Amino acid sequence: MEKTASEQVMLSELLEQAEKLSSSKTRDKIVEALYRNSRGCIEAGVEYSKTKHDERTERIDAVLTSPVWGFPIMLLMLGAVFYLTIAGANIPSSMLADFFGWLEGYITVLFKLVKAPDWLYGVLVLGFYRGTSWVISVMLPPMAIFFPTFALLENYGYLPRVAFNMDRLFKTVGAHGKQSLTMAMGFGCNAAAMMSTRIIESPRERMLAILTNNFVPCNGRWGTLILLASLFMAAGFSGGLKSFITTAVIVGIVLFGIIITFSVSWILSKTVLSGVPTHYTLELPPYRKPKIFDTVIRSSLNNSLAVLKRAVKVAAPAGVMTWILANIDVNGTSILLHIVQFLDPLGQMLGLDGYILMAFIIGLPANEIVLPVLLMGYLSTGELVDAGGIEDIKQIFINHNWTWLTALNMMLFSLLHYPCGTTLINIYKETKSKKWTFMAFIIPTAIALCVTFLIAQTVRYFGWI
What we know:
The protein has 19 helices and two strands. The protein is mainly α. The protein has a two-stranded antiparallel ribbon with strand order 1-2. The longest helix has 44 residues. The protein is globular. 40% of the residues are buried.
């Protein structure tokens, strides 16, 4: 039965009205009305008196959750945490490296006394010991500062305010506001962040969080980002100004990762994971005076040592494997060099080199070992460099034709590339799907390749290096 012209007009008007009613603004108004009505019922039926603490909380929230001041304060907080981590970790890192270098001297003497074969000394000391000591020297001091500082913000009650501020942005890209909490956990460990996505009830939005959480730099990548930013991006500066420039670069890298998170979330929410973002009510807890001593001790022991233990477990065998690959020859060339030569054409296109790509491949089990493996590959002896000499490390990079472009693209590749092995295992456990685990691997890898390729080609085209 054919519809008349008036019926068609009426139908189109009804469809248009239905579309308007299903918009996100309408849903927001409905939720707002429900909240307003429920609050009115409470105010009419319940009598309570505000305490000074309640009034103070409201005044602070008016600033921290303000559409105007909320985000600048978030950036300042983030920058402050990074600055404390970068500025405070240098001295203890150097002290630890000196200690391990001093201890290695005695271990070497012991091996000589027992007349141990060279291959055993190479595997156990130059591979196992140096790989492990590097990870401890580089990772432990930043973790011992970063985790407690972040825990104090959580203990004070600030992180729920961050989730409140970020909710609007996540809903805009089709994701869930609770993802901001999983991102915050990702700063420490992406593997743990994947498990924390359980707080997101919607399967679609939880999958979005799983696929994009990797773009937040985890603790295993801090060492690479901080070292390269300090050596190349903040070169020419000294003292507090150098720490400030390094912090600014790191904050910029983190913000770029967040932009990529929003972009990928928006694309996925419009394609393979399309759907309507769900609403959630977030109860903001009162501000509490942080228990500084308890928080610092608990965070240092539970988080720092747990992550360090995992890193050492991976770094030790990786150091041994790298030493073996660097010292076994095939047709007069080490296996490691064969791998490097195969990867080098792709690496040069990305503004990197074959050694860097080799280090990322061997570093799949844990991001913490990428730099030690890279330095071992660069050394002609196939040994790990002593972690104590920062300027010596920079000289090694320069000797292998590094520029600021190489450092920048390695930082970006480290930020964007595939998750570590532990995180991939957790993704499979959470999704029970090989397909989505593969997607979690291939999406960031493709983005890392595209971003570094575009930057390298642009810089070379305009002759900026």
